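User: Fold both of these, please.

Assistant: Here is the first one.
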Amino acid sequence: MPDPVILSVGASPVGDSELTGRDLFSVALAEAFENLPDPAGIVDALYVGNQSESYEHQIMYGTLLAEWAGLRHVPAERVEGCAAAGALALRHAVRDVRSGQCDVVLACGVEKMTAGGTAGATEALSAAFDRALEQRSGITAPSQYALLAERYCHETGATEEELARVAVKNHSNAARNPRAQYQSEIDAETVLESPYVARPLKLFDCAPVSDGAAAVVIASEEVAATLVDSEETVRASGVGAGSNNLAVAERDLTFVEGAHRAARGAYEEAGVEASEIDVAEVHDAFTVCEPLLAEAVGFAPRRAGVECALEPGERSDGWSDVELSTSGGLKARGHPIGATGLYQAIEAYEQLTGRAGDRQVEGAKRALCVNEGGVADAVTVAHVLEAT
């Protein structure tokens, strides 16, 4: 079957919103269908990435958002994979279209994290840890990632100053992203002087609590041709997924194996190599994630991932010329958990169709999106997207 294409995208701004989850979705839906027929006339199925029901005390998000979109009789399903939920929804949509089962599928994600406050978000995220081995110890997401960061710095010689540069780069990118939660630049001193959350990670090493919703319309190439011009679409040419042990204590902390397998699967399906990727959105929930993922997906040699904050021409031999997290990443664009994978796809779509404004990467033809759930790569989904 021909590759499915991204037909259209839409998203709410990311931040602390007064809107409910369903109303955030309405904003995303309105943008995605601004130049398309009514969803009820073309959409065959809907998938919703949603991390936790605890924020709004709401399950059945598939049914709810189908109703909200006027799709009361189509298959509608909530997908859960912690922070990888959005990419899983996109993966299901791509597979439905590629198989010929559906012509048009709506992949979306939504999270209203601020409804639970900081304590509620901490509790909801902790549910992604192994109950018997980790949750009962009281460990939190920042402390889990601090273990990864401590080990990474020990193994590679990376410093807190180098991790701070990742935050600086991504805030600089987010300052040019009208959807971003933080649209202002910061300097390394701001990161280094912020209080420790879990050593060596400080406040500005961590993604914020965020609200947001995103929608991506996946269609067959044949149907897409009847609705929009071909230059407005992006091919979903490769999809890969991987997983790892749920408990961090049961893993090798020096290499993100699940992400490696997910990216390798996406590359093989698309028939490309890591060196051919121009832009990438990687799951930088904490600054240490970007170096780890740069190594895992083949952009950087082992132990050189921390150079991700440098300009491509300043990196070591063996690094690709890829531009990372041009949206500002989870760190600065924001991280509404269940929607994050779709926000990544939206950034890739805008880069590949020349719609990224001041953050546009010249000549971008291929993108990689890597979305993780749980701590690091308990579940990882990777998509290769290409300009048509």
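And the second sequence with its predicted structure:
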Amino acid sequence: MLLIPSTAVPDARVAAAYIIFLASYLVFAIGKFPGLKIDRPGAAIIGAVAMIAFRVVQPSDALRFIDFSTLVLLFSMMLIVGNLRLVGFFEWNAEVVLQRLKPTHLLPAVIFTCGFLSAFLVNDIVCLVMVPFVLGITRRMRLQPLPYLLAVATASNIGSVATITGNPQNMLIGSFSSIRYYDFLFHLAPVAVVGLFLDWAVLHWIHMRKVELPPETDERIPLPTLDLSHLTKPVIVVSVVVIGFFFGVPPAMMAALGAAALLITRTLEPRKLYQEVDWGLLVFFIGLFLIVGGAENAGIVRQLLGLAEHWNLQKLGTFTVVVALFSNIVSNVPAVMLLKSLIPGFSNPHTAWLALAMASTLAGNLTITGSVANLIVVESAKPQMEIGFWDYFRVGLPITLATLAVGWAWLTSIH
């Protein structure tokens, strides 16, 4: 690629920045570049390199655009959750919670189990481990698995809105906003709780109200073999990490300490733990930081600020709708990365940050492609269960509209 020297006219670099920015966000929106096998992480790498190559971002300034606390928090949470997954915590937890359930209680149990776990741990991993379990238990109970799989996806998204560590976009917002963990939880946990009840109501109305459930039996679901020596340490470490979050320790530092403690082990191969890390997502974040940094240098973000004033995005209702739409067009993480630049100019940045977290997360329930958690559920369910676009959308639309309305009303009422 031809490098434009730093002495070139600024207009050439601005034009390059627009092309790089638009091409990158096109891939973020549709998942790949037309005619080429370039996925979202690939587009982020290419876009970041191009921003530096065309001197939109100076090589000496590249590091200042990367928020390392977000990367450390994301990486550390992946290690912590990966450790819990390898020792069987999620499967054991699900079995304990759902062991004696009647068929009529399975739907709310799945919803609230997924929602609670996703509030404190990364929601994508919760979906990954819950899908095989839900398929197994519905087979044993002779139930149609579709509503329960939809419950896993939607409840994981809704539950993750409650905390900074619930999903990647919340981690970004927590880092940039400097909102304390307990402050974030205090403001958005009520939205998650009410949202889970709405999720239950919609799924029951659409899928369960006319279904005749099989007769109840006294058969117990067998618990998996559990080695407490493997499970005790991770549970203690995770408990200490969450307590540290509540006591105001910076989330990145607290999570890093927990991850480091879990790497001190005699039983778990570190190589297996490293395989639990989504390296593509980390690369995606680094590339996004540099692409958005280039957009800031080229004045693209200033133009967005002008549009924000024209659309009056400082009105909470308007901002919620715009965030939800944008999150479904380009995906929630790229949307948050771009919109974060608008928040400091708002009259009430604290509420705007919370609204950005709320809307970008809950908007993920609209379609199958609305969040990574949805895609994980759909792909993990194959080939036993095929979930089509309409299967998801007919529950995703009312759930999204209802939860966004609750989130908007709640944030409006407390500020």
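Residues 1-9 have pLDDT under 50 and may be disordered.
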